[in-house]
Specification:
The protein is α/β, with parallel strands linked by helices. The protein has 13 helices and 18 strands. Strands 4-14-13-12-9-5-8 form a seven-stranded mixed sheet, sandwiched between helices.
Length: 432
Amino acid sequence: MVRSLEAALEKVRGRFVAANPRSRAAHAGAAATMPGGNTRTTLFHTPFPLTMAGADGCRLTDLDGHRYVDLLGDYTAGLYGHNNPVIRQAVDKALDAGWNLGAHGTDEARLAAVLCGRFPALELVRFTNSGTEANLLALATATTHTGRGTVLVFGGAYHGSVLSFGDGAFPLNVPHRFVVGEYNDAAGTDRLIEEHAADLAAILVEPVLGSGGCVPGSPEFLALLRRRAGETGALLVFDEVMTSRMSGGGMQELLGITPDLMTLGKYTGGGMTFGAFGGRADVMSMYDPRRPGSVAHAGTFNNNVLSMAAGYAGLTELFPPEVSRQLFDRGERLRTRLNDIGRARGAPVRWTGMGSMMTVHFQHEPINAPRDMRPTPVLRELFHLDMLDRGFHLARRGMVALSLELGEAECAAFCAAVAGFLDDYPLLDGPR
């Protein structure tokens, strides 16, 4: 089975190369001026990445003219799909009024009011240019407010390009004093908190691991973090850059757990360049320039007029709370159907996630934390390239993030494609 799977992968790679000569040439040209022809590592895949020429609705078109159903949703940033007319109109209107204003505008206060009205944690909020930047500012806020220096994070978490906690040490991480716990390990985490309580400034956690495999945090685990943060004087920070889409008030609303600080990004800026951090008024007031001893938080594009306008239009016109519930339910139905397809075939396939975020894993064993995931590089690449061949674009690691443009027809077609993959490549001998 190992040899046959590897042979199948070589065959699918060959088809991919033959079908995409223009993408191959574009990547070779890009490599002359960018390392590896790439400026966003997560988008690279072998043999070479596709280069997209355009997009509309829930579909992408590459340089060679192939059309794909977009199941990646730009890793949750693309909630509104491509070229949504509501977002387009908001951006056009903002452009008509000028940009690079170098001054306060009307739209940042309008967007801030919507966010503070939706998310329980947000009493005050400030804007940034990305989720990475939002998480960096949230940690800086926590260390400054508490006067402490240790940050508890969890293995498998990704909080941005310089806050990555996968396997092994990540050389680009910022130099906080990080303590890395096991996700969903309440007892072990409690011991770590007790050990570092005197210097613990923040507990930073994704309520559902996103890039780390779409693993939901258990309510008991997350409730422990809330309780112990309060007892030790640390600030609990929910990274809701991805998970804020789970309900009108994010995962914190579903859990009934309000963090001290939270971070946002991706779709909450209408799919534009955007991030936000905020929380308790007594903590965030340190940034009030009217107060003696306030802390400066600069950023030329913190109030980017395009993000401010697109974010407000998206949240109020396209993604009110009732629509977030519908999207959540659509994702739950899709993940159930995908797991049923694998179960009916006895295949070692398990889809984890919550709502509109999910990831495929090639194993029978349940997954409660990244440590439970079996490495299956051959199958992951085979699945990714096979799905492209069948007309579905998703993450190389098998992650899916639904957009509002995806309907039942696209979900049904994807289920049929996954069934076809499992029938064409029986995996009963175990994953590789």
